[in-house]
Amino acid sequence: MCNEIICRCEEITKEEIEKVIEDGAQTANEIKRFTRAGMGLCQGRTCRGLVERLIKEKTGIEPQNIVPSGYRQPVRPIKIGQLGLKNEQN
């Protein structure tokens, strides 16, 4: 049993990712949707390469043929006044 953490943000283990690959997931986006790996605060910047390596190891797909997962820019909560609404009241 391998409990090596691949995605630190979502605490997804190598075992969980290997399981979804065995169940048929072959792209980084499929793994992301099934496990949430790459959906944390860093948006996959840390784990994307590890996930792609696992896809290569389990499926034999060459790295240049693995479609990288999409990602969004990280967001941080801000106060509503920082959006400029504070200045409109003056």
From TrEMBL:
Pfam entry (one): Fer2_BFD
UniProt entry tagged with the keyword Hydrolase: no
BFD-like [2Fe-2S]-binding domain boundaries: 5-57
Entry keyword set: Oxidoreductase
GO molecular function: oxidoreductase activity
Species name: Natranaerovirga pectinivora
Protein name per the record: BFD-like [2Fe-2S] binding protein
